[in-house]
Amino acid sequence: MEKFYALIQKHQLLEKGSTVVVGVSGGPDSLALLHLLVRIKDKWNLRLVCAHVDHMFRGEQSKEEMQFVLDFCKQHHIICEAKQIDVTAYAKKFHLSSQVAGRECRYTFFKELLDKYHSKCLALGHHGDDQVETILMRMVRGSTGMALAGIKVKRAFHNGYIIRPLLAYTKEQILSYCREQHLMPKFDPSNEKTNYTRNRFRKYVLPFLKKENPLVHERFQKFSETLLEDETYLQVLTKQHMNTVLKRKEKSLVEIDINRFKSLPLPLQRRGIQLILSYLYVHIPASLSSIHIESFLELLSQDHPSGSLDYPGGLKVIKSYQTCMFTFEHDDIKNFCFELEIPSVVHLQNGYKITCEIVKEPITFLKGNNSFLLIRKQLVGPLIVRTRKQGDKINLKGMNGRKKVKDIFIDEKIPLHNRNSWPIVEDGNGNILWIPGLKKSSFEAEYTDENEYVVLNYDEL
């Protein structure tokens, strides 16, 4: 009980008078947790709600375990919410492993109960051995940052938080407590199968570590807490510095300035990538690891001005000159071709607009390559705005001969991901008049006060 109290007080896991939903499978860990909470229930004025899910994996045996939990709660005057869920069918429907499907079903049920009982606290029975196994598994898998800290004693969940008051205990200590209190927990035989990664760590790695240090779980818990403290500080620094690196941040797209990013200390670079990925992914794919972060840093270090990486879940990383873009939208850029009415204003998908006006004195409208001037009566219509085509060439103003549009993009260091959406303006004869913001053609008119003009302007929205 001393460790139980100590962890609760150290991390402020419980508030007196609160309602606590307790996930209980009927196994020794969750049963011991529930029993410990029952022992402090009156002193802390707690309202306990037991939550049990029968995954229906083991037929009658699962039903017996559910009845065991119901009986235990009845004996101790605890509210019990038990639910049978066909997890196998759920896994098949959504193409998930049985473990992932089971977790999704459980946590959905937990959220429902938190709402039903107006509770902000979900208590789960993970213990010190679980912590050691989790940290080792994540190290082997290549996790980085806060993921390496393993299981948090307290973390945000739904409209409240999850607490894990047993992280100070080993499995053997929990089993010993169950024996002392005559709890008679149930045991899931699947926990002995070595086809699960965690079970292999539990059977082969953990015993070796305990021989080296019987208190290894305390060392790992200290490592977890210290790493979380360090990471929290570094995350604050990273967010501050990344604000100077970001060029664009949208729902499914982030663009950064490469030079500014590379000027950051390497620890902040790695965490900066993690911030970007956490923002873009709704759920971080299990296959995403430190390998992807290292491959990104290698991409930026290469001398070649362009390159790309494919990340899990359809995320593409595109380097082009001094910018790098993380995007899910690389396949969503649509070719366009439309007639530009005179006068009109059109909004483009790249975040710019083209304004077309009829004027007598256009001098005040001219803005270098962001504007284009035509004599209205000499204009061969219609004016067309489109995306580039293979082999596009333009007669540049002040130069003899024609130049490929592709070469202009390269000379101007236009990122690859911007080229396919860049507007091209041509006349009714198919002559390219203007590449807005970049180059003008020799077809631009010279201003005199004797004509009526069409002025095109290119501006940000």
From TrEMBL:
This is tRNA(Ile)-lysidine synthase. The lineage of its organism: Bacteria, Bacillati, Bacillota, Bacilli, Bacillales. Keywords: ATP-binding, Cytoplasm, Ligase, Nucleotide-binding, tRNA processing. It is found in: Cytoplasm. HAMAP family: tRNA_Ile_lys_synt. It catalyses: cytidine(34) in tRNA(Ile2) + L-lysine + ATP = lysidine(34) in tRNA(Ile2) + AMP + diphosphate + H(+). Its main location: cytoplasm. It comes from Metabacillus sediminilitoris. GO terms for molecular function: ATP binding; tRNA(Ile)-lysidine synthase activity. Ligates lysine onto the cytidine present at position 34 of the AUA codon-specific tRNA(Ile) that contains the anticodon CAU, in an ATP-dependent manner. Cytidine is converted to lysidine, thus changing the amino acid specificity of the tRNA from methionine to isoleucine. Belongs to the tRNA(Ile)-lysidine synthase family. Residues 383-456 form the Lysidine-tRNA(Ile) synthetase C-terminal domain. The keyword Transport does not apply. PANTHER family: TRNA(ILE)-LYSIDINE SYNTHASE-RELATED. GO terms for cellular component: cytoplasm. Signal peptide: none annotated. GO terms for biological process: tRNA modification. ATP binds at S25, G26, G27, P28, D29, S30. The N-terminal region contains the highly conserved SGGXDS motif, predicted to be a P-loop motif involved in ATP binding. Its EC number is 6.3.4.19.
